Amino acid sequence: MAKVRFVGSNLNKVTEIKVGKIILEGAEENGIDIPNGCRYGACYACSVEVIKGIENIDFPNLKPSKNKIMTILTCISKIKKNGEIVIKL
Ligand code: FES
User: Fold this and answer.
1) What pLDDT sits at residue 70?
2) Which of 11, 26, 33, 86 could cysteine-pair with 51, CB 3.0–4.6 Å?
């Protein structure tokens, strides 16, 4: 299990998501709403910033932004290993 903290303007929630699980699905199972659309990596509606723990995520399309925060698509990114992850919605 990875310990995943979701943060946002009105959000600060910690949950656990199993290794191998798609992050979008793991969030939904824990009552955390991430905007989404296609659910196969085409529309970018589910993109989030990973503030911490990028090494614990399997991401097919990592996109570093200007401030070196990594952006992932949660519908096609999986938990890679146990550890701590912080995601900004
Ligand atoms: S829901 Fe469309 S890219 Fe993730």
Assistant:
1) 87
2) 86
